Request: fold
Amino acid sequence: MHAVHHPLLSPAPGTQRELVSLHYGRPGGAKAYIQASLHADELPGMLTAHHLRLQLDALEAAGQITGEIVLVPMANPIGLSQFLLHAHLGRFELMSGENFNRHYPDQIAAVAAEVEGQLGADAASNVAVLRRALKAAVLAAPVDTELQSLRRTLMGLSCDADIVLDLHCDAQALLHLYTETPCWPECEALARFLRSRVTLLAQDSGDNPFDEACSQVWWKWKQHFGDRFPIPQACMSVTVELRGAADVTHELAAADAAHIVDFLRWRGLISGDKPALPDAVGDARPLAGSMPIKSPVAGVLTFVKDVGAEVLAGDVLAHVIDPITAQVTELRSPCDGLFFARDFLRFANAGMRVAKVAGKHAVRTGKLLGA
Reply:
């Protein structure tokens, strides 16, 4: 393994942050990119990356890493340093207010125009041409801010990968995944290895989050070129939600890291006996069917259903209690589905999203992700 230090644009004299990437194997074959805690206050991924690093170190010492594996054990040094009154604020950059996992730059049209004359009937050759041009365009893009330099660095490390895993967590949740619909045929095996209860599928959910910025180039190039050139879905990019924010234990992290290693071995990036594909413990559902539960009033929030419950439309999930009037407001599920995530705050403001139920049928339109 060798570590690479990537300095970010300095936001002020006397200050300099850097991103560190750990590189295993060697370039030239299949590539996996894994990053942790892009939302810097979501720590299960960081601990999983620690255990993954220990396992990859041992595998490399044994000569078993046959592909290229890039691990970014802490993907957001900006957010990691943001504290206000002892509260860690790692989701949004305090300077701009932007979500660290949104607004990744789009080089799709520029690259398509640049390489069209180099494409032909060989799909593998087309992938190689497009990857080289994409990486060059990403790294050459100008940046004006530290946040933009972070985004450019992360995309430069990941944009030519076959597999991209972005390790996050929810507030209180089951392990679940997000990926684009064209990635699901390859992601289904990952869902099995990780024991994911639900995978939420969308095609362009809005605001260009990191995982979609990595995978959407391929299906958009395929649409752009049509039948003229074969363009496969050459990147499977997945957001892995490692349960809830407080699920930071060695037992969970070591198991999750081992499951990722099993998947990478199954995909051929690590040598040895190919593990058996586990039975599925969940399914895939449309992100447009994942229904946010909002509180129409403010008050003390208490849940009457636990995550993991299968619920029916109309089932009561939580109560919001006005401490002054003693009024109790029931929050009900809007659909049949899996109650897979809820907030850890226990005072709800009016209009606050406090939970999510994954239904099986697409209902929502427009931007599908939360803030």
User: Anything to note?
Assistant: The two ends are 36 Å apart (CA to CA). Residues 2-281 form a domain with the Aminopeptidase fold (CATH 3.40.630.10). The mean pLDDT is 97. The helical segments are 44-61, 77-80, 108-115, 123-140, 146-158, 184-194, 210-225, 250-266.
